[in-house]
C-alpha cells in the first residue's frame, strides 16, 4: 500500500529523508495574495550533505545499465500518475495558472517521461587501420538543476529525467516563488528511488551560489534570466563545470502581407498572452507588413477583447495573474513607461486593482524601435505591434537584440517564409505557427539566450561527457 502523501506539508529532501530548518519561507497565491505553506530554508550544511549523498548514490547508479535505469525512472512515473490531480491543483495555487493550463503542465511531465524513456544511448564505433575507437557517453556526476518560477514542475522533468538516464545524481533547487510542486515531486519519488539519487533543496538567495560554487557539483542545468545565467556561468568557470543555460528571449514575429489576417492575428495574441506572457520562448514583438497593418491591428484588438482573464478558477479563463510581486513590479514599470512616453495603446494598458497581481492584456500600436516595450523582454501580457515594408530592414530589426531564443514567420509563400526564417538569429524559428516547444526536438538559445540544448533525441547526451576508448590492433 502506497504511503499517504500530504499536499499541505513541505520539506527538503536530503539522502532520502525529510530535512527541516530553523528558518522558513513561503510562497503566495498570486490570484488572491493568500500566503501559502511554510518551506524550510536550506543551510550550507544541507547543501554539503546533499552533495555528499549524491556522490555516494552516483557511485552505484553510474554502474547500472540504461535498461536498469529506465526501469527505476519509469517507476517514478507510476508513482506520479497516482497524484496527477493533486499536482494540477498545486500548480494552480502556487503559480496562478488557469485550471486548464495547470493541468496541462502536470501532464507535460508525463509526456517527458514517456519520450525520454524511449531514447537510446549507444556507443559509436570508429574503425581505423591501426585501432578501433569507441566513443562512449559517460555521466558527469552530480547535477544541480536550478529552476524558474514560470514552469516549476515541467522543468523538474525536463532536467531530472535525462540526467538520471545518463547515470547522474541530481539536486533540484526550485524558485523560492514556486517551491511546492518540486518539493512534493521529489518527496513522492523517494518511494522508488535509492537515497541521495534525487534530492531537493528550497531556500533563499544564498542557495544558488552555494550549489554553483560547490567543487563536487559537475554540471549546472539552469533556466532563468540572462542576468542570473551570467552569474551561473561565472561560478561554473571556477571549476569548469559543465552548464546548460536556458535563458530569456525577446522573440520577433514577422507577418507578411499574404496571410489570412483573421486567422493569424488571434494565434499571435494567444501565443503572446499564454501563461500571462511569462514564457521565455513566445511572441514578444510583432512586425506586420504595411499593406495589412490596420486590418491586422483591428483583428488583434478583437482577439484581445475575446480573451477571458482573471481568477484562474473561473470557467474558460485564459490569462491569469503575474506569478509574483517582484515580477509584477517590473510589469507595472513597463506599463507606466508606455503611458509616460505617450505610446498609442490600442487596447488595455492598465493594472487591475485588488489583491491579485493582474495586468490587462494590452496591445501597443507601432511604438518606436527603441521603446522599452520593444527592446526588453516584457514577461507580461503586453504586446508591441510595429509596421514594416522592406524585408531586409525588418529582418535587421528583428535581429537587433542581444537575445536569440525563438521567433516565427508568417506567409503563404513557403520560399519567402523559409528565407526569412533562416535569416533570424534565434535557436528555434517557427513558420506559420507560434512558438510551441516539443520534447521531440532540441531547443536552446543563441547569443545571450543561452548555451547548450535541452530536449530532443540527444537529451540524455547533454548530461554526459565523452570518453573515447582506443584499442590497438595487433
From TrEMBL:
Known catalysed reaction(s)? an aldehyde + NAD(+) + H2O = a carboxylate + NADH + 2 H(+)
Asked if the keyword Oxidoreductase belongs to this entry, the reply reads yes
InterPro entries according to UniProt: Ald_DH/histidinol_DH, Ald_DH_C, Ald_DH_CS_GLU, Ald_DH_N, Aldehyde_DH_dom, LUC3-like
- Give the record's keywords alphabetically: Oxidoreductase
E.C. designation(s): 1.2.1.3
* Family annotation (Gene3D superfamilies): Aldehyde Dehydrogenase, Chain A, domain 1, Aldehyde Dehydrogenase, Chain A, domain 2
Q: What class of enzyme is it?
A: oxidoreductase
Indicate the segments forming the Aldehyde dehydrogenase domain, all copies.
Answer: 25-467
Q: Does the keyword Cell division apply?
A: no
Give the active-site positions: 246
MF terms from GO for this chain are:
aldehyde dehydrogenase (NAD+) activity
The UniProt similarity line reads: Belongs to the aldehyde dehydrogenase family.
Q: What's this protein's name? A: aldehyde dehydrogenase (NAD(+))
